[in-house]
Amino acid sequence: MNYIIITGASKGLGEGIALELLHESHHLICISRSKSEKLEKLAAAKNCPITFISFDFAMTHDVPDLASLIFEYIPLERASGVYLINNAGVINPVGRTEDCPADEVEQHMRINLISPMLLTAAFIKYTNGWKMEKRIINISSGAAKNPYHGWSSYCTGKAGIDMFTQCVGTEQQDLDFPAEIMAVAPGIIDTEMQTTIRGTTEEQFIHRQKFVELKESGQLVPPQVAGKRLAKLLFSDEFSNGGIIDIRDTY
Q1: Are 197 and 203 in contact (CB under 8 A)?
Q2: Which residue in the list 73, 148, 154, 251 is annotated as catalytic?
Q3: 73 is annotated as an active-site residue
Q4: Nearest of 174, 232, 203, 181 to residue 20 by alpha carbon
Q5: Domain assignments of the chain as residue spans, ordered by start
């Protein structure tokens, strides 16, 4: 049985990834603030074990307890592979740096950067010495490399995810049974985050019209299409420890 942990799995890209991974040989452990009835029904139809755990990733101090709960569902004797997809994320606050409320900036970093770091660390600790495939995908963005006016928090958090991925990859590379890790930019996905972006003002985000046009011209990637690409990479021989890629350049 492959055990696959997916954060932010109840909607958007996380749900799209989960839909592609529904299989009787997979046990999906979905971490989000709410359940997806769609996922539950399809999982039952495909005889795929699925577990939902309610969690708010702004509560970083509770991540170690979350990890303990997750691994209660992952028995070593039954696991042939263990996987983590750090997908949960937010876009707000959007606006000039001096206009972003301090509490929103802090919450953003807790959700987008600190929680994935802590959950990755726990994943490595719990699976240390497990002689099987262990892989982590951190969802990154083109914003990790390209500065956007109004996205100082988002760009900084994703850049941090990329560097964190490289550091962990370096630490794991000489181990006999490493936890392999990659940061993957999935493209511009048609999710609620895009709705939020289009709902900003030009003053908050000067590139707003570009994203409106992407939606109107049908250029946004459906979540399940991106999910299919990520699911393929997760088990691929092309999975490169410590690597950073744009999935559109590969699949």
Answers
A1: no
A2: 154
A3: no
A4: 232
A5: 2-188+223-249
Residues 191-200 have pLDDT tens digits of 677 777 788 8
Whether the full predicted model's pTM is greater than 0.90, yes or no, is yes
Residues forming a β-bridge with 84: 5, 136
pLDDT tens per residue, range 47-94:
999 999 999 999 999 999 999 999 999 999 999 999 999 999 999 999
**CB neighbour burial string for 172-195, b if at least 16 within 10 angstroms, e if fewer:** beeeeebbbbbbbbbbbbbbebbe
Question: CA-to-CA distance for 35 and 9, rounded, in angstroms?
Answer: 8
Comparing CA positions, the residue from 85, 234, 203, 205 lying closest to residue 143 is: 205
Which residues, in sequence order, are CB contacts of 31 under 8 Å at separation 6+?
Answer: 5, 6, 7, 8, 9, 53, 55, 66, 70, 88
Residue 147 · residue 155 · CB < 8 Å: yes
The CATH classification of domain 2-188+223-249, taken from the options 3.40.50.720, 3.30.360.10, 3.40.1110.10, 3.30.450.40: 3.40.50.720
Binned at pLDDT 50, 70 and 90, residue 248 comes out as: confident
Residue 237, token pair as written in the block: 């021989």
